[in-house]
């Protein structure tokens, strides 16, 4: 009880002692009969996400995998064979091994994960995601095998030409599904009933996709592929992230998305955005490329965890839901 | 209705499933006595695990809110307002200059079985389906517990059941007693409701009855009663609708619920734009900076 209500209680006691009757209202005790919390006793209106750390980690690795395939195609076109091979290795490991494992671990009933492929529902971002990830894995793994076989010149003449064609088709397929793999995760959480998420439904796919591209390039740079093209991608991604940080800071919706602007989980998003936006940009500008790459990757990871954490805070806040429905 | 005995739609056998009749619940707090028989009947029939034995301090509601193991939830609202022609006591004894209105409202909350259901649209396994009677049903042997329906329900009804409860990991919510209805029985909560505050029947009939009930209440001097059935939003109406006193926020009901699929268009547009710009940026990088 606060001091003011204690004082009021003392007043009431004195009044009762002197007059034998008390005029006026008593003291509202916290949790007392008249609800003071918003909504129904402050109970959440929508359900906060049940997702644990696996999901933000999947967003991180899925983004790297998908956009690495894009880098692989461009590298293959412009004759950077070693870079294309490295990028496809990242795409295959992050997209066809790490991502499915994380997704299956997050399921309430992991043994039923194949049920994801029972139906194709274009109106469910989760269903589309399951198919995108499957298609990506179906292109990236054979694409990597074909690329490795082709680059070692194991087969003669006509067979090698066929292999070359297969490499082209499969890597291109991986790149196309890869761009979707890196961006659909933004749609996934953007098209929900969680206020902080659906109010940023256009922001999230841009953020997740661009962060994926920058992380793919950053990881390749850390693996020793220091070429100007990757440096340019690093500049590009960090610039977009800087713009997104400014957008996020300006585009406020009051109580509806206060989880982003007032809460600790919102700080995770902003710290992440500073690491992969302005800081990565400055470090890269002064030539500290590996540091810029590390800063970018760290920022992407932290902000991914932050976005899922913000969903939990925002979903538990009844007032956010009421206010968000006015937008 | 009361007095109809075995002829009441809450008591008589039916063939709604076989005849594809859209059914619903109309829940009326003005006759609810807060006995929680619906909660008990639901748990007994559906063998739902307990939802904890804690004291909430929120009036007589120790259930909390709807969830994986709470499919009916009786709300206890305490408001400093007058209910109908209720006689209001004075602010303090021996005086009549100020009134101290107080009302207690009980409302049995349940899955709304939306016309456009967020959970059903979101489900990637096809586990959540629409039944013959228009209700939304989770086929629990198909659900793999991805948790996407949980964040897609605009009413926060469905949830994933945590360990160590039986059948943990799957998503659960009200089944509209689909198993009972297939055999011509009335949902357990409506069957047991002693005041027919929960009214079960064909949706069209219920809507007519609800309108009549509103007029009745108005004639008795009630002032802030209205129907909670968001037909004008993208949810396009709910099959379990409510008569409420006062604003929906006080019941934890969203005033303008939206089915999240309406956000898909703008989100996918942003995703495709990002996909294309990323490809272009990468090609530019390799074409001009190699």
Fold and architecture overview:
The complex is a heterodimer of chains A (327) and B (290). Helices cover 72% and strands 0% of the residues of chain A. Chain A is mainly alpha-helical. The longest helix of chain A has 34 residues. The two termini of chain A are 37 Å apart. By secondary structure, chain B is an alpha+beta fold. Chain B folds into 2 domains: 254 residues, Alpha-Beta Plaits (2-Layer Sandwich); 28 residues. Chain B has 8 helices and 10 strands. A 4-stranded mixed beta sheet of chain B has the order 8-1-10-9. Chain B has a two-stranded antiparallel ribbon with strand order 2-3. Chain B has a two-stranded antiparallel sheet with strand order 4-5. In chain B, strand 4 and strand 5 form a beta hairpin. The N and C termini of chain B lie far apart (80 Å). The model of chain B has no long low-confidence stretch (mean pLDDT 93). Chains A and B meet through helix 2, helix 4, helix 5, helix 7 and helix 8 of A and strand 2, helix 3, helix 4, strand 6 and helix 8 of B.
- Count all strands of chain A and give the number: 0
Provide mean pLDDT of chain A, rounded: 92
The neighbouring-strand order within the major sheet of chain B is 8-1-10-9
Radius of gyration from the alpha-carbon trace of chain A, in angstroms: 26 Å
* Span between termini of chain B: 80 Å
What's the total helix number of chain A? 12
Instruction: Report the major sheet of chain A.
Output: none
> What class would the helix/strand composition of chain A place it in?
mainly alpha
Task: Please tell me what the overall shape of chain B is.
Answer: globular
Query: Any idea of the CATH topology of the largest domain in chain B?
Result: Alpha-Beta Plaits
Give the ordered list of helices and strands of chain A.
HHHHHHHHHHHH
What's the Cα radius of gyration of chain B? Answer: 23 Å
Structural class of chain B: alpha+beta
Q: Strand-residue fraction of chain A?
A: under 5%
pLDDT below 50 for ≥5 consecutive residues: which ranges of chain B? none
- Unreliably modeled segments of chain A: none
């Amino acid at each position: 009880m606060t001091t003011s209500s204690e004082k009021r209680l003392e007043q009431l006691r004195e009044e009762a002692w002197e007059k034998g009757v008390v005029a006026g209202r008593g003291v509202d005790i916290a949790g007392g009969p008249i609800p003071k919390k918003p909504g129904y006793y402050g109970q959440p209106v929508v359900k906060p996400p049940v997702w644990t750390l696996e999901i933000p980690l999947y967003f991180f690795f899925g983004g790297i995998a998908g956009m690495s395939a894009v880098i692989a195609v461009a590298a293959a076109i412009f004759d950077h064979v070693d870079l294309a091979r490295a990028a496809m290795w990242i795409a295959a490991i992050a997209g066809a091994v790490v991502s499915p494992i994380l997704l299956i671990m997050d399921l309430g009933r992991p043994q039923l994960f194949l049920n994801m492929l029972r139906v194709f529902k274009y109106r469910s971002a989760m269903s589309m995601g399951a198919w995108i990830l499957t298609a990506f894995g179906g292109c990236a793994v054979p694409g990597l095998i074909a690329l490795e076989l082709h680059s070692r010149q194991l087969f003669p003449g006509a067979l090698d030409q066929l292999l070359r064609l297969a490499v082209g088709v499969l890597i291109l397929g991986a790149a196309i599904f890869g761009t979707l793999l890196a961006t659909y995760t933004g749609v996934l959480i953007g098209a929900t009933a969680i206020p902080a998420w659906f109010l940023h439904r256009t922001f999230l796919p841009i953020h997740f996709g661009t962060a994926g591209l920058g992380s793919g390039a950053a990881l390749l740079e850390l693996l020793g592929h220091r070429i100007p093209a990757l440096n340019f991608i690093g500049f590009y991604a960090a610039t977009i992230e800087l713009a997104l940080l400014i957008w996020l800071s300006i585009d406020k919706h009051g109580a509806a998305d206060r989880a982003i602007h007032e809460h600790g989980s919102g700080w995770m998003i902003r710290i992440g955005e500073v690491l992969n936006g302005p800081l990565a940009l400055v470090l890269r500008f002064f030539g500290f490329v590996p540091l810029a790459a590390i800063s970018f990757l760290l920022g992407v990871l932290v902000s991914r965890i932050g976005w899922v954490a913000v969903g939990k805070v925002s979903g538990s806040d009844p007032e956010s839901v009421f206010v968000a429905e006015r937008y | 209705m009361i007095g109809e005995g075995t002829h009441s739609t809450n008591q008589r056998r039916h063939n709604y499933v076989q005849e594809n009749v859209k059914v619903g619940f109309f829940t009326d707090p003005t006759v609810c006595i807060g006995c929680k028989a619906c909660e008990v009947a639901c748990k007994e029939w559906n063998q739902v695990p307990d939802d904890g034995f804690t004291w909430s301090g929120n009036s007589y509601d120790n259930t909390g809110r709807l969830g994986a193991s709470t499919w009916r939830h009786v709300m206890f609202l305490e408001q400093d307002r007058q209910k109908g022609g209720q006689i209001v006591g004075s602010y303090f004894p021996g005086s009549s200059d100020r009134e101290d209105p107080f009302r207690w409202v009980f409302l049995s909350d349940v899955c709304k079985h939306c016309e456009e259901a967020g959970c059903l649209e979101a489900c990637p396994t096809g586990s959540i389906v629409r039944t013959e009677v228009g209700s939304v049903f989770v086929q629990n042997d198909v659900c793999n517990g991805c948790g996407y329906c949980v964040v897609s329900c605009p009413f926060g009804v469905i949830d994933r059941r945590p360990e160590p409860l039986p059948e943990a990991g799957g998503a659960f919510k009200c089944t509209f007693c689909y198993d009972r209805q297939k055999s011509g029985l009335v949902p357990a909560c409506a069957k047991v409701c002693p005041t027919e505050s929960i009214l079960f029947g064909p949706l069209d009939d219920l809507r007519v009855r609800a309108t009549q009930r509103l007029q009745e209440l108005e004639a008795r001097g009630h002032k802030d009663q209205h129907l909670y059935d968001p037909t004008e939003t993208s949810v396009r109406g709910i099959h379990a609708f409510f008569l409420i006193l006062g604003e929906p926020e006080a019941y934890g009901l969203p005033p303008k619920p939206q089915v999240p699929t309406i956000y898909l268009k703008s989100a996918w547009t942003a995703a495709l734009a990002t996909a294309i710009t990323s490809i272009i940026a990468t090609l530019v990088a390799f074409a001009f900076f190699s």
